[in-house]
Hints:
The complex is a heterodimer of chains A (1133) and B (75). Chain A has 1133 residues and is α+β, with helices and mostly antiparallel strands. Chain A has six domains: 1-215, Rossmann fold (3-Layer(aba) Sandwich); 469-573, no CATH class; 588-641 and 656-723 and 733-748, Immunoglobulins (Immunoglobulin-like, Sandwich); 754-867, Sandwich (Immunoglobulin-like), CATH 2.60.40; 888-1010, Sandwich (Immunoglobulin-like), CATH 2.60.40; 1014-1119, Immunoglobulins (Immunoglobulin-like), CATH 2.60.40. Chain A has 24 helices and 46 strands. In chain A, the strands form twelve sheets. In chain A, strands 6, 8, 11, 12, 15, 16 and 17 form a seven-stranded mixed sheet that branches. Chain A has a five-stranded parallel sheet with strand order 2-1-3-4-5, sandwiched between helices. A five-stranded mixed sheet of chain A has the order 19-26-25-21-23, with no helix packed on it. In chain A, strand 25 (849-865) and strand 26 (868-885) form a beta hairpin. Mean pLDDT of chain A is 89; it is low at 1129-1133. With 75 residues, chain B is an alpha+beta fold. Chain B has one domain. The interface between A and B is medium-sized, with 23 and 19 residues.
Amino acid sequence: MSPTQWDLPVELCCRPMAFVTLTGLDVVYNAVHRAVWDAFCANRRADRVPISFKVLPGDHEYPKCRPKRTSYEWYIPKGILKTGWMNKHLNLVPALVVVFYELDWDEPQWKEKQSECATRVEIVRQSLQGRNTKVAVVLIQKKTPLPPGEDVIASERAAALCNACELSGKSLFVLPHTDHLVGYIIRLENAFYEHAQTYYYTEIRRVKSHKEFLNKTTHQLLFVRHQFKIAFFSELKQDTQNALKNYRTAYNLVHELRAHETNILEIKTMAGFINYKICRLCFQHNTPLDAIAQFRKHIDLCKKKIGSAELSFEHAAWMSKQFQAFGDLFDEAIKLGLTAIQTQNPGFYYQQAAYYAQERKQLAKSLCNHEASVMYPNPDPLETQTGVLDFYGQRSWRQGILSFDLSDPEKEKVGVLAIQLKERNVAHSEIIITLLSNAVAQFKKYKCPRMKSHLMVQMGEEYYYAKDYTKALKLLDYVMCDYRSEGWWTLLTSILTTALKCSYLMAQLKDYITYSLELLGRASTLKDDQKSRIEKNLINVLMNESPDPEPDCDIFAGKTAQKLWADRISLAGSNIFTIGVQDFVPFVQCKAKFHAPSFHVDVPVEFDIYLKADCPHPIRFSKLCVSFNNQEYNQFCVIEEASKANEVLENPTQGKMCLVPGKTRKLLFKFVAKTEDVGKKIEITSVDLALGNETGRCVVLNWQGGGGDAASSQEALQAARSFKRRPKLPDNEVHWDSIIIQASTMIISRVPNISVHLQHEPPALTNEMYCLVVTVQSHEKTQIRDVKLTAGLKPGQDANLTQKTHVTLHGTELCDESYPALLTDIPVGDLHPGEQLEKMLYVRCGTVGSRMFLVYVSYLINTTAEEKEIVCKCHKDETVTIETVFPFDVAVKFVSTKFEHLERVYADIPFLLMTDLLSASPWALTVVSSELQLAPSMTTVDQLESQVDNVVLQTGESASECFCLRCPSLGNVEGGVATGHYIISWKRTSAMENIPVIRTVITLPHVIVENIPLHVNADLPSFGRVRESLPVKYHLQNKTDFVQDVEISVEPSDAFMFSGLKQIRLRILPGTEQEMLYNFYPLMAGYQQLPSLNINLLRFPNFTNQLLRRFIPTSIFVKPQGRLMDDTSIAAA
Amino acid sequence: MAVCIAVIAKENYPLYIRSTPTENELRFHYMVHTSLDVVDEKISAMGKALVDQRELYLGLLYPTEDYKLTFWARH
């Protein structure tokens, strides 16, 4: 965009830098000069001093200095600030002029050169006459200079040159053209910078010195001007603190000026400039709050300074620019690192700028509505001789006139007219949209989504005014959903109204229909008459006619629209518009509700579609169809009412499809579900409601799922929170809010009419073939077919159970691991009504614990639903939990032949293995047989015959067996020696003949075997009799490989007399046996201690008599002497 | 003088808005709606502290050119 009257001048907005001109450099043809110039101006980074350099010829004419005023007494200023002043000091009047001259100290023609240089300096001085501009000379030398003081010639000639040029020594520099050019240049420019600062300092002093001549009555303008100049020179001097101070003073002074309609623009313009400078410096000093405070003050002071009412749009334009410029400054400061916040960011300033731009447009519209015949004045009063104004903010036709009276009212009128006619050509909307879009970008950044939406609405509306309806619609459509989702209906209605106008003006059918549908709906806050109008238009559109124009539309655009609509009518093509309603709030509401969450397959599925219209007049729809996830049902759920296009609004109360506003319409649908859908969900995927018909235009409203639109969830929430009591309605009507959408239902199988009984005797015993009798009886009225049984372990239990549970239908054979845990779909044939069947099921459980068993019976039956023949699959299941227990406990112990408990057995010495089988089953068990399978390390002493064949054990009873075994010497075996297995074959006593016997194998414990050196056993009768001889034979076996010395003694006992060796010492050869024979003679009856045998082994002192007593008896029962006579006498008595 | 009073539900939809009839009603609706940006931010920043405190005056939200907006939150 080209700069307009209101844009701030470039010289105001730039950063002022000291202006230094370089002369005597031929940058085009001289490579050395070119290099010097490049070193000055290329790569000027922030660390270099702020100087703006310019190369000028030595004889350049600088702006002439006006003669110094000696008195201000008669001087009357014509304005505040000349338009050229800032540019003059930035770009035209240098602080320092540098004369470059090639001259080495040892120059042979020194004199001539010196005088040429002096001439050049003189020419520059001439041109700068009257100015304080400094002059400096730089000698470009080929040779590197010697350190100061060493080169005597150099010192002399330097002094001479200074003298010739009338320069101080500080203004003469040497630039050796050697390697370190940039280094020399930086040192040079630092020196230049010091000179420039001195220059600006003297300028400030000079301006200040005028002050004393001024008086407050005639020189008010000069107070401002001088203060501004001091501030500006301070900026050039890079003294921003003083610059700010002086700008602030200038700002206060500008507001002290007497304001009048004729000079108010000048005052505001200058106030705006100074304010800009202050805010800029505050941001630069990192005091943003000061900037904001200054800006607020500025706006408060100037807001009401409107000036001429005829040109009040100028004030709005100026205000807009103030906000925009501040927004730009703020944004720039942020880019340099300032942090802004949600409530204080540039967006607010751009927004306000846009607001004033809008006001400008409004004012311009009302003030500049001249008739077309009004011509732009000639000559142009806005033209000046120079093409620019002399002073900022003045009127071109009365420049420099300070009087508050309008000397030439006619001239004034022409000038105003010219401005008004120019304003008419301004692209206001473009300005507004740019500002709004700046604001949008800021609010997006500072998390203000609603502010952003609001500004986008304004942008959309501005595009509408600018007649760019496509862009307008795009923006409005984009933000609509934000207002809809938050339920701000008033705002939504306002946006929709504009959108409807846009779509009307572009004759966009689908958009027009969509916005109409929503504006008629419950979210719209339009009055009824408006709604009536829209409804009528909608019907017209559906009947393929043009709608009436929207109110307040641009007349020209309205005419274009009418043509477009007429073209639409003649155009054939797609006249069906399907509009998804889930994202907006249409004027019809829809809710679908299944009567139940599930339906049996043999009863019809029923559901209601509830419809309610919110438009002002009754309306007739042409078709309603419901779609399901299984599309085969769609055909059963269609209502179509043939009607002519023009009947949409007629005969309103007749027919199912005519909706009366505010009344809920209920439509019942039913259909029979497919048997394949048993176990599946039937879902309503969409409801389509058609308005209009194919001959005209047709709109299909499409609800996803079981109805509901963009406002439904919020309404439900509101209804739930409301304390309002609903009014009572007649019985056949329902409150809309109380209808809850139920868009899906389950199809479940027909209720079975059979009984399933299980008969069994729990608990199950480990590994037995446990019998479960399943009885199925049909109570159906007709024959049932294809009865199938699934039985066994219920799936979903511990996986280990599956491995240890086996099911079979054949109880006669023992099932093994290959049998399944669950038998599926065993066909069992058909059943007539009342008939029953029985099936035996055998379960083998390998582990104890409880298990759940499932018996599932399925069958087919022919039945009717809604007079339709269907085949239903029914099923019934039973579950039962069965505990499995061990049938018996087996206890095993090792005892000596004397039935004494043994911790360990002795090699080669017989011992007894005793088994004890205790029934734990609540049912009688038959032990069919038992078997002892000895390990190779064990041998039997006698026959291993079962002693418990066919024994029946009741609960708690036990059966014991005893086996005499011997363990040959094996040497020392760690952990003992395996004994073998005990196998019990058993079954339930109640089990049938053909049920197999179960073999339960018990692993017998290991036993520790110990070797002994000598084994003694005794042969003696089982009892003795008093005074009858009792022969006893002791066998002493040497179990070692050594010859053993044995000491034997027999100790006498009171109960016996005895004969035989009382004490003897003998030797027993390895592996041989020695017999000792004694004749005992009992003296007393009863249990008597035998004379004890003591053996002492010389080689094995550990062999004790205690050990000996384990093998030989220590006492014997002695019967009294028999008396045969007495026995008979007792019998006789 | 108060020119507009609004009561807003916690889901941010308006429960009640009344403004002086002479003013542009729509403008106030937009103003209240846009101020919810700041309310949202304040409430989320205060977080749990807000729930514990009894003092729910959110204070001056932000000054517009011509109006001032203040806000109270409640449970």
